[in-house]
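Example 3.2
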Amino acid sequence: MLTIYTVYFADVTDIWRLKTKERIIVNLAGIYFELIFCSMLLLYSIIFNNDIILLIALIIFVSSLFNLNPFFPRSDGFWIVTDITGKTDIYKYSRKKMSEFFSNLIRLKPTKVNFSDILLILYSCISYTFLAWFLFIILIKNPEATFLFPIKLFELFRNMYLNHYFSLKDLLHILPSSVFYYLLIKYIYQMISNKRKLKKTT
């Protein structure tokens, strides 16, 4: 998220010295204060009937929910699952555990799994299901909304600025497309960063 817009940053590297429950509390702290701030903006927008402040409150709220999603890399939800399972590279371990589990299941080979393994298998299964569903919504069910996203976004802000009109329905309509473009930009940025790192090492 730091690559898209400016946010307050706190170095919490030392939380690895804390216990699991304490690390989870630290990871939830940012979302907790975001929701408090969001509630204050929502109350202000209701009292003064300000649609722009309402839009800002909704953006912060959706961003907080998005950040709580454990299936997006380096989100607070991602770090919470990492703390619970005790695995630093959760994608690698979850894919490995899922592959081993289903491979043994097909071969009718007994598999010993503990609570952490069950979480990792479920995490990987849900991740792939969520990704498939998301791509289906974006690229197959509603491709026009994705391709016309810049125009729809411009119209939304134009109506707010010129006509003082805000439509929650229009905002929710472009929300999946905005997430898609956010992830696409982030993926491209990571690819460029990785290439630069490889050039420096060679």
